[in-house]
Amino acid sequence: MVPTPRSTDLKLTGLMGSLRCCQLFSGLPPEDLAVIAAFTVSQTLAKGDYLFHEGEPARGCYLVQSGAVNVHRVSAGGKEQVIHVFRSGESFAEASLASPTGYPANARAVEAGTVLLIPKVPILALIARRPDLALRMLGSMSSHLRVLVGMLDDLTLKDVETRLLNWLVKHSHTAAGGVIQLSGTKRVLAAELGTSSETLSRTLARLRDQKTITVGARTITVLDAPALAAQLRRNLGEV
Question: Could you tell me if 113 and 65 are in contact, meaning their C-beta atoms sit under 8 angstroms apart?
């Protein structure tokens, strides 16, 4: 079916709305959003579909419209380390636009959804005309860097229990009623903590037996935040 002018306009409006919700493009005038939307490509992903693999030439950067994308690297021993799980409104792979070595990691859908590919050649041409967009891109990459630094700090903690306690204490500060909503499955959380699903399950069970947490399908409820914080300090040798 040949797209009608009305359907084309609706699609463009929808793409502009998605771009406007992203930190990278929020605040841009409608004219610029329309230019970017005109060359943006929508891709539908099934769970498990790969967007790219480490080292592949960069086709562009991405914006998650719906679903979730796991960006990760795989060690020489085959162990997967999650860098971040990107969700609706978040952009990623901006750094690869200027890299001659291609994508620095792998990206796989952990939930079915849709992503927007912002192709490399036209977006770089636009950046050359609009230096303020380059500053926005640097800001977005700085946010990603803060995530990486935080992840590295967490992974230097000596054992899985300490890493989990650290994660629980951090997230309990912003959890309404102590209920931490998991952004993905427990397998995804295990990968973020640098451990296996089985080890995470055993560690959660120990904390549950101590009556400091309860565990749901997609939630962890903190029952005793001070006890978790005290246990974390003991594990770190601070008391």
Answer: yes
CATH number for region 160-235:
1.10.10.10
Cα distance between residue 21 and residue 37, in whole Å: 13
What gap in Å lies between CA 69 and CA 88, rounded to an integer?
9
Rounded CA-CA distance 105/56 in Å is 9
pTM equals 0.66
CA 98 to centroid of chain Cα atoms:
21
- pLDDT, tens digit (0-9, with 9 covering 90-100), for 86-143: 888 888 888 788 777 889 899 999 889 999 999 999 988 888 888 777 777 777 666 6
Instruction: Identify the sign of the CA torsion 117, 122, 124, 128.
Output: negative
pLDDT in tens, 10-29: 788 889 989 888 877 877 78
Using alpha carbons, select from 135, 182, 150, 144 the residue that is nearest to residue 62. Answer: 144
Q: Which residues pair with 106 in a beta bridge?
A: 72
pLDDT of the residue at 234: 87
Using CB atoms within 10 Å of the CB of residue 113, give its burial: 0 to 12 exposed, 13 to 18 middle, 19+ buried: buried
Distances 146 to 50, 114, 151 between C-alpha atoms, Å: 25, 26, 9
**The CATH fold of domain 5-155:** Jelly Rolls (2.60.120)
